[in-house]
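STRUCTURE:
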């Protein structure tokens, strides 16, 4: 059976950098599906801008025309802080034999040692790291060791084993971030082509990021 890709994020908002990365990893790793898991209350961020329901709505709108992208709302439904280790534990119970691939941008991977019970993640899933502009793979420290001990360059290994490997993959570099998108919207500029049209529409209609934005934004 093909692996399931698990792509978590605040998605505040979801953008074309997320979608293109997920798409390339889905194709190149021959994943059965990519599951987008928007966080409810993220442990690493002090502030969220759009509500959980709205972030979920934007992710749903973004993936609506791609049948192999599915949205998993368990972290939004779960009360309290969202921890990836809890989500992966649940997924592992639901799919005991299946290969699970946690998809991360390089910036997220570099922050992994700060995650709650981070050493329990690799026994539950493979970690697939996508190069992201401006970030380099670690060669020292706990992540450098992780790459030496668990790294693989073979997609086949991700299919044959259910968890436990680290795989780094270059993807098309799209220098888009949610933070910069929100700043652009606050400045009254149009996010067209940086987010899917359906997401742009929700941002314009709900004015969730900027009181100044409107249909006449330049
Ligand atoms: P922020 O600007 O607030 O940090 P973000 O754009 O990084 O937001 P997140 O929802 O925090 O978005 O990211 C979810 C996942 O997507 C993370 O693993 C992150 O590394 C990855 N990611 C985000 N943007 C890109 C991009 N442009 N290219 C590749 N991966 C990305």
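SEQUENCE:
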């Amino acid at each position: 059976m093909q692996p399931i890709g698990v792509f978590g994020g605040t998605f505040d908002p979801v953008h074309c950098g997320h979608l293109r990365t997920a798409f390339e990893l889905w194709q190149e790793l021959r994943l059965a599906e990519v599951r987008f898991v928007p966080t409810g209350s993220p442990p690493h961020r002090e502030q969220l801008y759009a509500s959980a329901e709205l972030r979920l709505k934007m992710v749903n709108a973004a993936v609506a025309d791609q049948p192999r992208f599915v949205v998993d709302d368990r972290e939004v439904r779960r009360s309290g802080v969202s921890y990836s280790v809890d989500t992966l534990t649940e997924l592992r119970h639901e799919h005991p034999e299946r290969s699970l691939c946690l998809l991360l941008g390089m910036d997220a991977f570099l922050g992994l040692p700060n995650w709650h019970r981070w050493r329990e993640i690799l026994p539950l899933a493979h970690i697939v790291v996508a190069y992201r502009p401006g970030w380099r793979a670690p060669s020292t420290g706990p992540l450098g060791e992780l790459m030496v001990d668990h790294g693989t360059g073979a997609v086949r290994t991700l299919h044959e084993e259910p968890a436990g490997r680290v795989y780094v993959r270059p993807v098309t570099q799209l220098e888009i971030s949610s933070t910069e998108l929100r700043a652009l919207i606050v400045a009254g500029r149009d996010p067209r082509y940086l987010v899917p049209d359906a997401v742009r529409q929700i941002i314009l209609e709900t004015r969730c990021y900027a009181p100044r934005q409107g249909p006449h934004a330049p």
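REMARK: Confidence is low (pLDDT under 50) at residues 213-218.
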